[in-house]
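User: Hey, my collaborator sent me this sequence without any context and asked if I could get a structure. I don't really work with proteins. Can you help?
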Amino acid sequence: MIDRRIDCRNARQGRHGAVAMRNLTGIVRVGRHRIMIGIGHRVMMRGLRYMRCVVVVLVRECRRVRAAEKDGNDQQKREHGTAHGFSRSSWPRAPQPRGRLMFQILGNRTYRNLFAAQIVALLGTGLATVALGLLAYDLAGADAGAVLGTALAIKMVAYIGVAPVVGAFADRIPRRAFLVAMDLVRAGVALVLPFVDQIWQIYVLIFVLQSASAAFTPTFQATIPDILPEESDYTRALSLSRLAYDTESLVSPILAAALLTVINFHWLFAGTSVGFACSALLVLSVVLPRSPAVARSGGIYARTTRGLRIYLKTPRLKGLLALTLSAAAASAMVIVNTVVIVRDVLGMGQREVAITLAAYGAGSMIAAFALPRILDRIGDRIVMMAAATAMCVMLAALAIVTAYYARAPLFWPTILGGWFLLGIAYSASVTPAGRLLKRSAHPEDRPAVFAAQFALSHACWLIAYPLAGQLGAGPGQAAAFGALAVLAGIGVILAGQVWRSPDPEAVAHGHDDLPLDHPHIKTLHGGKVNASHPFVIDDLHRIWP
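Assistant: No problem. I've predicted the 3D structure and written it out in structure-token form, which is a compact way to encode the shape of the chain:
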């Protein structure tokens, strides 16, 4: 009865592509293929309850942090008092339980609102991903795959080409106004998408949408270190951001599937627009620090390439780029070939595909929770190099297992374990990247450097995604595992060569080209030509010593 009602409703809405609910599982039929958009009514309800639990936990933690801070202040006042010489600003904070450290930064109202804006924008993007696939089939039918492939290529071009240009001028624009404007552009594009009737219109709107995302994301990321200047707080912010991405990848498909049982897919774009509009309102509700404007020499080309030049002249950032290539190799194998391995090699169903992807996401989330404490004790280079090496080793091991034991009964549990470990290693290799970017640029240069990382990292994925897909479809999954293991190994070797240990923040260097009365020599060098201080690439330090 449920199947008939849903089929009749979808037929009345004029949807191309039958939607069947078999065994309480939502499936979109695209030609002879089937794409899972949901995993059943029970799982949908569990997903919605999971979203509610996440929101409840965040709200409770914020309240606990505020109460703990208030109680701590009151306790210090009772114990010490002003008679002991403590001013109110100098009283130490009450110690916080370990379990609350991750969410303690949500006590900062500005960061809390920005984090909420990130979550709702991610959910809106997830809904748009599902809706775009259905829209492509609605217009192109059996050629929907080619349309989506072209849209993905346009997305990468926008990310790689637009981000450095915007990053070059981001320090001249009020951040809050700029971020709100980009959210409104994305919301407007999402509202227009349901009304397109030509393929080229999709391409144009996707370029505008992704260009706005390429402008928004690096600027947003560069704002967080200014709001949370303490490195420990910023590290926890990076872990929460990683958790937000992982949670979105699990929740958005379930939410989309639940909505598609009662509405037409065109309305998903409205949900996307609402998400971006809520993000804009949350950003508008806070006051953001503005990057200090510094007079720059040179024209548009010099400003546009400034972030890339700083990035590629800093050894730790060149190492970060190499490790990003290793991370792209592992994630591309998971994202591109999980469905093929589970459905074709193992002959299993769509439920097993969801479970396998969930194993990867679970590993990534566990690593995100553990990383703040790890990075408080171990340096970034050791953690990231170890994680990238682990990805290389696991990809090579899975290549051997796939080549010789693909038909063995324990192959699927092996893949589950491998995906779980790859998720841990992936999160450990990419989450600390923001710490390296913050450490390697002045505040006024951070938007340009974050934009350079955004563009270059997507260039790595542009290499890894086609490689994983073509090798998996051609020679087979063992060859794909092996080739991506080699690619990850190349990244590890290059990182070890360009990012040497130790990597101190203060570097000894000299300025033979500056007079002794130069302000830089007087303030940071103590009147000496040769000295040691925190070193970043800028107009006075053009080459790494």
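In plain terms: The chain has 18 helices and five strands. You can pass these tokens on to your collaborator as they are.
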